[in-house]
């Protein structure tokens, strides 16, 4: 009976060992499947985060470009306002030279100042509008008719015009032949 009882106990231990081994195998299989599912889920999350990062970098680059464009536009606006004010000084210096009745050292100083101012303006892109090649409505403002000028030709320049980096700063006020 003791042998039978030992045999039953041994059979019971073997059966429990088999069940434990089978449970471990099933647990190992489940764990591998779970790990594969987790890996796939993590890969999808990684792709999503990479896409978000790429989008954030793209948005940052676009913001930098937009800020640079706005900065350039602001700089151009400020330069344009400043140049318009300086052009008024050029007009005043030219009027002073025209009003002078005799050549004095003061008049010569005004001429040199005008020349220096025009040179500085040209360095920064301010150029006088051409009035020798006929009337151009984009660059000239006709304010009257000059009876001595040919048709569509500029007779008298009342006020010089200027461009700033190729853009019209102030049109030349002219009288045109009919």
Automatic annotation (TrEMBL):
Location(s) in or outside the cell: Cytoplasm
CDD domains: GrpE
UniProt key word Amino-acid biosynthesis: no
Keyword Cytoplasm: yes
GO cellular component: a single term: cytosol
Region of interest (Disordered), residue spans: 1-29
GO MF annotation: an example: protein-folding chaperone binding
Ranges of biased composition (kind: Low complexity): 9-29
Keywords, sorted A to Z: Chaperone, Cytoplasm, Stress response
Gene Ontology terms: biological process: protein folding
PROSITE patterns hit by this protein: GRPE
Highest rank taxon of the organism: Bacteria
Subunit record text: Homodimer.
Summary of the function given for this chain in its UniProt record: Participates actively in the response to hyperosmotic and heat shock by preventing the aggregation of stress-denatured proteins, in association with DnaK and GrpE. It is the nucleotide exchange factor for DnaK and may function as a thermosensor. Unfolded proteins bind initially to DnaJ; upon interaction with the DnaJ-bound protein, DnaK hydrolyzes its bound ATP, resulting in the formation of a stable complex. GrpE releases ADP from DnaK; ATP binding to DnaK triggers the release of the substrate protein, thus completing the reaction cycle.
Family: Belongs to the GrpE family.
Protein's UniProt name: Protein GrpE
Species: Acinetobacter rongchengensis
């Amino acid at each position: 009976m003791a042998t039978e009882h030992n045999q039953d106990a041994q059979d019971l231990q073997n059966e429990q060992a088999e069940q434990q081994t089978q449970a471990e195998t099933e647990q190992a299989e489940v764990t591998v499947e779970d790990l594969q599912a987790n890996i796939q889920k993590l890969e999808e999350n990684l792709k999503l985060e990479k896409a978000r990062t790429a989008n954030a970098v793209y948005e940052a680059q676009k913001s930098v470009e937009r800020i640079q464009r706005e900065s350039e536009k602001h700089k151009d606006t400020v330069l344009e306002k400043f140049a318009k004010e300086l052009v008024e000084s050029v007009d005043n210096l030219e009027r002073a030279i025209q009003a002078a009745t005799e050549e004095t050292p003061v008049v010569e100083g005004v001429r040199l100042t005008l020349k220096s101012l025009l040179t500085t303006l040209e360095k920064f892109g301010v150029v006088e509008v051409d009035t020798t090649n006929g009337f151009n409505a984009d660059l000239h403002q006709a304010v009257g008719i000059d009876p001595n000028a040919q048709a569509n030709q500029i007779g008298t320049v009342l006020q010089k015009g200027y461009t700033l980096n190729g853009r019209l700063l102030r049109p030349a006020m002219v009288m045109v032949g009919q």
